[in-house]
Write a structure and sequence with these properties.
The chain has about 550 residues and is an alpha/beta fold. The chain has 2 domains: about 20-60 and about 95-170; about 180-550, Rossmann fold (3-Layer(aba) Sandwich). About 30% of the residues lie in helices and about 20% in strands. The chain contains 14 helices and 25 strands. It has helices spanning about 1-15, 60-70, 85-90, 95-110, 130-135, 200-210, 235-245, 275-285, 305-315, 335-350, 420-430, 470-490, 500-505, 545-550, and strands spanning about 25-30, 40-45, 50-55, 115, 120-130, 140-145, 150-155, 155-160, 170, 180, 185, 220-225, 255-260, 290-295, 325, 330, 355-360, 380, 390-395, 400, 410-415, 445, 450, 455-460, 465-470. The strands form 7 sheets. Strands 12, 13, 14, 15, 17, 19, 20 and 23 form an 8-stranded mixed β-sheet that branches. The chain is globular. Secreted tripeptidyl-peptidase which degrades proteins at acidic pHs and is involved in virulence.
Amino acid sequence: MVSFRLLSLVSLLGVVLASPTYRDFVLHERRDTVPRGFVHNGPAAANQTITLRIALNSNNLAGLEKALFDVSTPSSALYGQHLTKEEVEAFVAPTSEATNTVNEFLSSHGITPTTISPAGDWLSITVNIAKANQMFAADFSVFTQESTGEQTIRTLSYSVPAALKPHVELVHPTVAVGSPVPDVAVTPDAVPASCATEITPACLQALYGIPASVPSQSASKIGVSGFIGQFAQTADLKSFLTTFRTDIPSTTTFAVQSVDKGVNTQGARDAGIEANLDTQYTTGVAGGVPVTFITVGSSNTDGIDGFLDIINALIAETSPPQVLSTSYGFDEPEVPAAIGTKLCNAYMQLGARGTTIFFSSGDGGVSGSQSQTCTTFVPTFPSGCPFLTSVGATTGISPETSATFSSGGFSNLFARPSYQTTAVAAFLKTLGSTNAGKFNTTGRAFPDIAAQGENVAIFDGGEEGTVDGTSCSTPILASTFSLLNAQLLAAGKPVVGFLNPFIYANTGIFTDITTGNNPGCNTNGFPAVAGWDPITGVGTPVFSKLRTAFGLA
């Protein structure tokens, strides 16, 4: 009996002292303050479990970025030759050294991870809080969101063993805390004169020359993102089509795809303004292009409300939609750099496959996703990511002017991409010293393009009304380019894919918006000027010019 206890003690000591390589910790991520809108309640229970994801560094992201621009830049010999799923995965996969080192570290703690991404760059583990704190020199605690009362477990800092530092991009969810904001606001209850007070599909067709029908093929597809319990109602869509698109069957609807156990509950009380807006202005404007509402549930463990999970789900598909429309976002300061970069690179993967990704720029002018008190301008996320198309908003019809709420500015996380260097330099020269010191003059500038975003008619919970926001302009542009994709595919041509290099190489084909500003942070914000500006980008679409620029007769 004594000898058995001694043997057990020796064995336990061996476990504790195993792998000295992994006892030398290096700080990996840290945030200095409790996230805005959250309260720190104290340490999480030691025996409570948490699922963590470990992102391994990819072997050749620079190569993937080059390949993306090769297939997306009109002057390139490879333009339009989008990559296959397997070709993208080859760039993204971690090296065998990275995989082996991380697996050895986890094994030293008695853990076998689960691979949760096609390329093998994401691993998942489930451990108790005590083990998580030990493994990553962390202090996982409970945080409560003041607006909702919902609690979540995060840490304000964590470290990794020095041997893992070259191989681990991040551990997640750790320092990322926050919820996405839908970029939409409710308002009270030849271009038709009525378009001056209410925007409908007929107004958009007249303003931008959007066709009413699609060629008789269904290869063009739109994905619509749904988050935070926003449900799209088929009854409201039917009312919308019956009222505003009498030329297409009122039975036209959308498919539903679930991520993270997402649902799409029906019934007037379950109607979501954002979800209804997005599905009505894709199904209703891109009549004939199949629409899928991708509903992301609350059971996500990616630490960023399913933003990463939805992209990983699409990356895993053999044929993802050629257009993805998302009308939600964060304030960039609330998104840690590591997860922001990882998510941006996931958009790069999808773009290389031929998907055009649209994100609303936000509704707070220069103060962020929503209006708020600030001293320096607040960029939004993911609009600052260079591998997607950020969408601003306009208002009025004769002529169009920039919407005051349209968020825009310059990222503090991402550098300015080469495709917009000339356009942004011209704006900064025009701006001069205005707002000096309030924004990052070298950051990725956004938005890229714009469309109508005020007094947009929808049905919600059985009632007709109007809404404002860059949430409106985003599905409108998604529909516009989905219809263009349909025509390109019918002509045997490649789809648009990652759009931004085309936009900045063809600024003259868009309607330039030169009036208005986007106030915030006790300033008038930025002015709309000739050429690109941080309210409406290069302007609004002209479908006939897009057709010509993409080689359609």
